[in-house]
Design brief:
The complex is a heterodimer of chains A (261) and B (221).
Chain A: H1 2-33, H2 37-54, H3 59-81, H4 90-128, H5 131-137, H6 142-181, H7 185-195, H8 198-224, H9 232-260
Chain B: E1 2-10, E2 16-25, E3 30-35, H1 41-49, E4 56-61, E5 64-67, H2 72-75, E6 81-84, H3 96-106, H4 111-124, H5 140-154, E7 158-162, H6 170-185, E8 190-195, E9 207-211
Helix pairs in contact in B: 3-4, 3-5, 4-5
The chains are: A mainly alpha (261), B alpha/beta (221).
Chain lengths: 261, 221
Amino acid sequence: MAFLARLGAPVRGFLEFLGDQAHLVLRTLHAGLALRSGPLAVVGGQTSLQVRFTGLDAGWLVAGTALLLGAVTLIQAFSQLSGLGAENYIGTLMVVIILRELGPLLTAVLVIGRSATAIAAELGTMQLNGEVDALAAHGVDPYQYLLLPRWLGVLVAVFALVVFFDAAALGGGFLVARLKYGVTWGFFMGSVRQALSNLDFAAALLKVFFFAGAITFHACHFGLRVRRSQTEIPQAVTLTVVSALVAVFVLDGLIAAFFYF
Amino acid sequence: MIQARGLACDSPEGQPLVEGLDLALRRGGNLLVTGTSGSGKSRLLKVLAGLERPRRGEVRVGDIAVWPGDGALALAGHVRVGFAFATGGLLSNLSLADNVALPLRFLGVPGAAAARRAAAALERLGLGSVSHLRPHAVGGSARKHANLARVLALEPELVLLDGPLEGLDAPDRGAALEVVRAWAGDPACTLVVATEDADPFVGLRADHLRMGPAPAPMEPT
């Protein structure tokens, strides 16, 4: 029996985690729908702070990473496919590798590294300082004041960053194509446009929505679980990173399978 | 205003603190909870406010089920509760003025009116000149007073104070005590004070609950 219990414990733990995530999402959705005009301005202010931190402040990091990635992708492609008419596949390569997969995925990884860690640490510290209790005691719904703005802020920021990432990666790819083969901007974009389909836009939007949710609610779950000591905060941050990364990769795989398999 | 039945709660380490407590406090009534450090006063206050789930028992505030139930969230929009914490409790990324005004905004008070009420409450507790500072930039007594100011600005129906005078020097104690006495004399306000030292509250007309070190059934006297 002890052996079976040991086998079942991780499964039970995982199911409890999923249940807690569902609870957080539903309570936050409910809190959003119940929002009255009074707190709306406060929640709006908090949301714009989150957009600034997660989106605007990460702009240069995302742009630099994407530019290099776009350039490196085409450098590698050309080095392997030279002589096979690689320039004819520029659009397909950029769409399949960058826009479909690496754009949303790497943006999510950067947001997990910058923002999910910050959210988990901030909420953990607030728990220890009794700030979350103080909010609830005085009629300030923590789902409205803490979770909803973070979710909305991360959602808007991830959407903007994915668009920014894709644009910068296309720019990096174009630079290489231009220098290597003298490809014109019109030919490059025409090739990309030809390879793009409505399915790609739908898949990207779905990824943005689910990645933003997974990042926010993993960070909130582990941050709000901090109870007694400051040593729990780095543990919460580590768990957030590992768990959110796994969730994002799993979601990416599921969406790719759903749309392209 | 508060009804508790068969209440049992433990310390965070799982040690029983309260066992089988029945409590009834009418609207406008006052209750003084005394006991040594670690006897469970703060825990009891948090259970009554809906912040900590009891191991067993029921709590109703203003005829709304808090436990079993949604805890403090069940009271939002129904009963105005003010809770002054012994330590912490102020949002570290907001100024003292914004800390005091935040619950008012969630009550639906417009921004300008909330700022006016917050400023008046902070001024009454001598914090007018530091109201723009964040909690980490002011001293411990100012943080305690800011906790009281937040409760004051809210004009609550139920006030829960955890060690409101602890760690304060004589002038600050005087200012805090004056505010506490005003709540105690207000028939629209129900007051619960948890303290180790009952002496400063001698003149207060209040029921008295003594928390013992050992878990035993308790009745208010």
